[in-house]
Amino acid sequence: MAERVATATEQLASGIEEASSAAESLVALGQARKGVDQIATAAQEASSGAEQASAAATQQARGMQELAEAIEEISGLADELQNM
Description:
By secondary structure, the protein is mainly alpha-helical. It has one helix spanning 2-82.
């Protein structure tokens, strides 16, 4: 009988250690999940920033093109005025 109690106690202790290890693993997985979520959020923010920068660069290029066209028109008008 004492042997059975000792065996059962050992099995219980082993089960408790496994449960504790599993709980620690769950905590670690939860922390890893938080890290993954933070990385995903940062990636989304970086993507949004890149899209905004691209849109700004496109607008700047359009503005430069309009400025170049305006300079050409002014130059043409200046030439016409000089030839009058």
